[in-house]
């Protein structure tokens, strides 16, 4: 699976970091660019909370190549 962040939409609000059950293990907001990025996806259990909570709809979860 992949988690894509639309960098044009992302405001760096950090809601994905606080709402994800794995939080900072997966999500980081780059201080300079103010853009969120998901890494360490081995911790992700694909609950899709991050995508649901992102206020600007910037997060896309792609399961095994399918959208
Ligand atoms: S919740 Fe959405 S807009 Fe906010 S930092 Fe995460 S990806 Fe960016
Ligand atoms: S799908 Fe769930 S566990 Fe995975 S990054 Fe999003 S909120 Fe976190």
TrEMBL record:
A Pfam family of this chain: Fer4_9
Superkingdom classification of source: Archaea
An annotated Gene Ontology molecular function: oxidoreductase activity
Domain 4Fe-4S ferredoxin-type: 1-32, 34-64
Coiled coil segments of this chain: none
Record-given protein name: Ferredoxin family protein
């Amino acid at each position: 699976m992949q988690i894509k962040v639309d960098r044009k939409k992302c405001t760096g609000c950090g809601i994905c970091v606080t709402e994800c059950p794995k939080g900072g293990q997966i999500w980081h907001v780059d201080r300079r660019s103010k853009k969120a990025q998901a890494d360490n996806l081995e911790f992700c259990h694909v609950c899709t909370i991050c995508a649901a909570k992102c206020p600007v709809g910037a997060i896309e979860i792609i399961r095994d190549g399918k959208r």
